[in-house]
Design a protein that fits this description.
Chain lengths: 442, 226
């Protein structure tokens, strides 16, 4: 409705301004013509005027002339009949209608022009132009504008009705699906169509959100399954240990031994729990861990300083390489824990040859920051690469060694927190490189 | 020492009380925050052990109220919320130390000892001394039996930490937090190796008595027995 009106108004405005421009130009031409006629009269008198009009009207023209003598009788000009409905405007313009015989048919034409009266007042001339087309155009335009407004309004109402009905239907579809999801059908997704409108975008965003939640839920379920499975084993050991000790009529030393074993087991359980908690805290995305500028040089130097003695006592050489001071906006504790886990992994699993060494390093290449821990041990089989990143996985070869199997998961969640990637690369000729790459703003 | 334990879980409270009494402390218990506040103001305790989540009055609020009275009584918070930021929050509210559940009892004992003694003599002395072992904080000079000992910066820090807690048990976690400022559990005996390095510098070369002891199941202690 409003649309129709405004479109109509704009069209009308356009029409009237252009029409007015054209009219003004035509009027200007007539004024010039009157001046010409005046000049001709001044030079050649009545005869000159007559000749001019005759020559002008002998060919087809839109200019119209009618010359009268002092008794108001027709002398010459292409308006043969007396003008009717003459309207004289204040500014000297006259508008009139006149009869024309076109191929034997009488027609009414419209004209607009000025009166030119010779200075001696013996002749009067109407000079003007035909305005039929303009008039007709104006009428037609008004007519068609009116119709277009009506059609637009009609289309607006009708289209709006259809659109809103469609829109409401889609909203109610979304509502229905949401209800289903709320009722527990978590695999359900909101309907989307091919279009790219806001509603569609909303639906696909919500769907992506649901996907993410779904994967988090699946992840959670996996974790709790793993937790249940992997914690059951040590709990069972503790239980059996205590139960058997009680059964066997033990002496004080046996009690003590049994309790100490149980303590060690529970301490390990606590460590595992803490690891799980810190992983889920970082991974859930709800963590409000601070980010501060962290110097990787400081981080690596501190780590080297902490682990160098234990590496040395195991006969392992712990080297570091970090040239420039690289600063990352991150969480110091998380990064140091990740690095500590990698170094401990390398010490525990990565050093089985004669001349074991571990390298820790960092460098920055424009927008990519790399942080790595490498060893020259046996490396890791390609098939095992993905496996070691899963929770609680310890490859069979290392089952006998201590550890929760969560070390790399802590690393992986710390890397995720810093929006980086974790790569396991087999080095040549032997060894494993664990490479963390974090994009940074240079 | 006279200790007030504010803990709502009966089971936990009875174990803790038993352990604390076993270690030679006198223990009173409050089972909610209000009672804890009342008892803390009523009698003279040497230290408070406060659970973070308490009925009636939350642990952090309890600490705030006690600190508002200008009391500098040592307080340790026990909490199931163990993350670093929770810890920082607890310390900000005026606790002297923060222990995440589940903790080992020896850890609690060591930390309790530490906060009580820290409170007893906050000495501004620039010379830390135990037996014939001396550490000068200004010149950073360490000597034993009159002989200068050359220490790496971290070994110096480690020794300073131990000398500030003479004849006390310090746990591995306390060392990792206090000397290295890390808040995670290492999967290796990384601290032990640093201690044995320090021992090889301050104990082994000297004919005097051993000073740096390993406390089984608890941690380490720097002691000088006459």
């Amino acid at each position: 409705m409003l649309l129709g009106l405004s479109v109509g108004l704009v069209l009308m405005f356009l029409f009237f301004t252009t029409a007015r421009d054209i009219e003004l130009e035509a009027d200007q031409k007539i004024i010039e013509k009157v001046e010409d006629l005046n000049n001709i009269y001044l030079r050649y008198r009545e005869q000159g005027l007559l000749n001019y009009i005759r020559s002008e009207t002998s060919r087809a023209t839109l200019d119209i002339y009618r010359l009268y003598d002092s008794q108001n009788n027709y002398i010459a000009g292409n308006i043969k009949s007396e003008p009717k409905d003459v309207k004289v405007n204040d500014d000297g313009w006259i508008e009139f209608a006149y009869q024309v015989n076109e191929n034997g048919v009488e027609k009414v034409h419209y004209g607009r022009g000025r009166n030119f009266i010779t200075p001696r007042r013996n002749l009067r001339l109407i000079v003007g132009r035909v305005v039929n087309d303009e008039k007709i155009l104006k009428e037609r335009f008004l007519y068609s504008s009116l119709w277009s407004i009506i059609i637009i309004i009609f289309l607006g109402i009708f289209g709006g009705y259809i659109l809103s009905r469609n829109f409401l239907k889609r909203i109610s579809d979304i509502n229905k699906t949401s209800k289903k999801i709320m009722d527990g059908n978590l695999k359900e997704r909101l309907p989307t169509t091919k279009g790219k409108d806001e509603l569609n975008q909303l639906s696909s965003n919500l769907n992506e959100m649901l996907d993410r939640l779904d994967s988090l839920m699946t992840n959670m379920k996996e974790v709790s399954d793993n937790v249940a499975h992997d914690l059951r084993t040590p709990l069972n050991r503790i239980r059996t240990n205590l139960e058997v000790t009680l059964m066997s009529n033990p002496d004080i030393d046996q009690y003590k031994k049994s309790f100490e074993d149980a303590l060690v087991e529970t301490d390990n359980l606590i460590k595992t729990f803490n690891s799980i908690l810190s992983i889920s805290k970082v991974e859930s995305g709800t963590s409000d861990l601070d980010r501060n500028p962290v110097s990787l040089k400081e981080l690596i130097l501190n780590m080297h300083e902490l682990y160098e003695p234990i590496a040395e006592s195991d006969g392992i050489k712990l080297n570091y390489e970090v040239n420039d001071d690289i600063i990352i906006n991150g969480n110091y504790n998380l990064l140091s824990q990740a690095l500590a886990n990698l170094i401990e992994n390398a010490i525990n699993y990565g050093c089985s040859n004669d001349n074991p060494s571990i390298n820790v390093g960092a460098k920055q290449n424009e927008n990519l920051l790399s942080l790595w821990v490498s060893d020259n041990g046996i490396g890791i089989k390609d098939v095992d690469k993905d496996k070691v990143l899963e929770r609680f996985v310890r490859l069979d070869s290392s089952r006998s060694l201590k550890g929760s199997g969560l070390g790399l998961n802590i690393v992986s969640s710390a890397v995720k927190f810093h929006e980086g990637t974790l790569k396991l690369i087999n080095a040549k000729p032997s060894g494993l490189i664990i490479l963390i790459e974090i994009p940074v703003e240079s | 020492m006279h200790i007030l334990l504010v803990e709502d879980d009966n089971e936990t409270a009875s174990y803790l009380m038993k352990g604390l009494k076993e270690s030679g402390h006198v223990v009173d218990r409050a089972s909610d925050g209000k009672e804890g506040l009342f008892m803390a103001f009523d009698s003279n305790f040497d230290a408070l052990i406060v659970d973070r989540m308490l009925p009636e009055l939350d642990g952090l609020t309890l600490i705030t109220k006690i600190r508002e009275r200008n009391s500098d009584i040592p307080i340790i918070i026990l909490s199931a919320l163990g993350e670093v930021d929770e810890r920082v929050k607890g310390l900000k509210y005026g606790a002297d130390d923060y222990l995440a559940k589940p903790f080992s009892f020896s850890e609690l004992l060591a930390r309790l000892d530490a906060v009580i003694r820290r409170n007893q003599h906050d000495n501004n002395n620039s010379l830390l001394e135990l037996g014939d072992l001396k550490l000068d904080l200004l010149s950073r000079r360490v000597e034993r039996e009159g002989q200068i000992i050359d220490l790496q910066p971290r070994e110096y820090k480690l020794l300073e930490f131990l000398l500030r807690r003479p004849n006390q048990v310090v746990t591995r976690t306390m060392l990792l937090e206090g000397v290295w400022e890390y808040h995670f559990d290492p999967q290796t005996n990384v601290i032990d190796v640093h201690i044995s390095r320090l021992r090889s510098k301050i104990d082994k070369p000297f004919k005097g008595k051993q000073m740096l002891f390993t406390e089984r199941g608890a941690g380490y202690a720097l002691r000088y027995d006459e």
